[in-house]
Write a structure and sequence with these properties.
Blueprint lengths: L1 E6 L3 H12 L4 E6 L11 H15 L6 E4 L2 H14 L4 E3 H7 L5 E6 L1 H6 L1 H9 L4 E6 L3 H6 L6 H16 L4 E4 L8 H7 L5 E3 L1 H18 L11 E4 L3 H12 L5 E5 L4 E2 L2
Parallel strand pairs: 1-2, 1-3, 2-9, 3-4, 5-6, 5-7, 7-8, 9-10
Antiparallel strand pairs: 10-11
Helix pairs in contact: 1-10, 2-3, 4-6, 4-10
The protein binds D-glutamic acid.
The site of D-glutamic acid has 16 residues, from α3.
Length: 265
């Protein structure tokens, strides 16, 4: 089973890790659009253009299914991705919303995701009586990518974002950006113990496993990362170090151009 997934940077690693836990016999084509990171402050049109380019690129990658490992693109351009790919597409927002049990839901996400209210709308579709509050966190992704998570600055920024949600007595918190599971230890330090953390990649992985079970069990060999391919739109060396840090692997990372020419090295 060969899965395609993408993100602006390392956020998709959290989705990849969750999928591997549930579906170990999968291999990946991972594209990090590092040249355009962060996505979270981009306009709707920019994200639509990015979704067009990325899904067109993946349409030539011989994948069996596609995971939208970026909430920002999920919120703005899921239809574009589905239109360009003829394999099953699994998304984070729909997967998470369909499994929500709690009634006072906080969502942290990028500014572009929050602007769409995609999480609120999706949750209310399944649980119309829920209370949902969304908080945009513009500083998180740049700080995570620059590995500034252990600073006091980061802690203060996190408290600034979470306090308004705690004031609203949330009982759950959705990590509405795939980068955020990387800072779970810090978030749990700030949150009160009654707040359940929800990582949408868990629901996505479960959906994937359920719908692909027969295919997955046909693969007896563990192929993860042996057959996986990693691509970036800039700085392969920097990304390689991040893969080593977060995934404990040392893969070959190839540079691609998404402007119609495909692989350039
Ligand atoms: N990790 C992505 C998301 O889930 C993109 C974050 C960014 O580049 O700002 O939204």
């Amino acid at each position: 089973m060969r899965l395609g997934l993408f993100d602006s940077g390392v956020g998709g690693f959290t989705v990849l890790r969750k999928v591997v836990e549930l579906c170990p016999n999968t291999s990946f084509v991972y594209l990090a659009d590092t040249a355009r990171l962060p996505y979270g402050s981009k306009t709707t049109n920019e994200i639509i253009q990015i979704a067009e380019e990325i899904s067109s690129w993946f349409s030539h990658q011989n994948i069996d299914a596609f995971l939208v490992a970026c909430n920002t693109t999920n919120a703005i351009a899921l239809d574009v991705i589905k239109k360009n790919l003829d394999v099953p597409v699994f998304d984070l927002i729909g997967s998470a919303a369909s499994g929500i049990q709690e009634s006072r839901v906080g969502v942290i996400a990028t500014p572009s995701t929050v602007k769409t209210k995609a999480y609120t709308n999706a949750i209310l579709e399944y649980k119309p009586k829920s209370f949902v509050i969304e908080q945009s966190c513009p500083e998180f992704v740049p700080m995570i990518e620059m590995d500034k998570m252990n600073s006091d600055d980061f802690l203060n920024v996190a408290i600034k974002y979470l306090q308004p949600l705690l004031n609203q007595k949330i009982d759950s918190l959705i990590l509405g950006c795939s980068h955020y599971p990387l800072i779970t230890p810090l978030l749990t330090e700030i949150l009160t113990s009654n707040v359940k953390l929800i990582d949408p990649s868990e629901a996505l992985s479960l959906k994937l496993k359920l719908s692909m079970d027969s295919k997955i069990s046909n693969f007896s060999k563990k192929t993860f990362l042996v057959d996986s391919k990693f691509y970036v739109t800039s700085n392969p060396k920097g990304f390689l170090l991040k893969a080593k840090h977060w995934l404990k692997v040392f893969p070959e990372v190839n540079l691609v151009s998404l402007q119609k020419k495909g692989c350039v090295s």
